[in-house]
Amino acid sequence: MIKELFEPHISSLIAGLITGFIGWFFGRKKASAEVETNQIENAEKLLDYYRKMVDDLGLRLENSIIRFNAAENTIRELEEKIDRMTDELKKYKQLNGKLE
After folding, report:
1. How many CB atoms are closer than 10 A to CB 82?
2. 30 and 47 share a domain?
3. Which of 20, 21, 58, 73 makes a 20 to 30 Å CA pair with 91?
4. Do 77 and 53 fall into the same domain?
């Protein structure tokens, strides 16, 4: 009696197990491929992020160099002005009879 009860359902059970195994087997490969694809996409996004950061740092460096050169020129001009004013002061002192 138990045999007659389970016998018609055994083929369905076996077919279900085989279908489940095949689905799991190929699904595993698909899931693995999707994970790898996601990792590649994340690496590309990270690379793009760092590329933008490096480009930004490059622009900042160029701007800093330009500002540094301008400041260096201003300092050179001020040093020349101080030298001229020092020379004028020496001449003024000499005219007033005050020698150093």
Report:
1. 10
2. no
3. 73
4. yes
**pTM of the full predicted structure?**
0.54
Residues 30, 48, single domain; the answer is no
The contacts of residue 93 (CB under 8 Å, 6+ apart) are 99, 100
Q: How far apart are CA 89 and CA 76, in angstroms?
A: 20
Residues 50 and 11 in one domain: no
Cα–Cα distances in Å, from 57 out to 33, 50, 64, 70?
A: 36, 10, 10, 20
Please state the rounded mean pLDDT for residues 48-62.
97
> Average pLDDT, stretch 13-41?
86
Tell me which residue range forms the domain holding 93. Answer: 37-99
Question: What pLDDT is recorded for position 32?
Answer: 86
- How many domains is the chain partitioned into structurally? 2
Q: How confident is the model at residue 53 (pLDDT cuts 50, 70, 90)?
A: very high
Instruction: Evaluate whether 60 touches 66 at the Cβ level (below 8 Å).
Output: no
> Does residue 72 register a pLDDT over 90?
yes
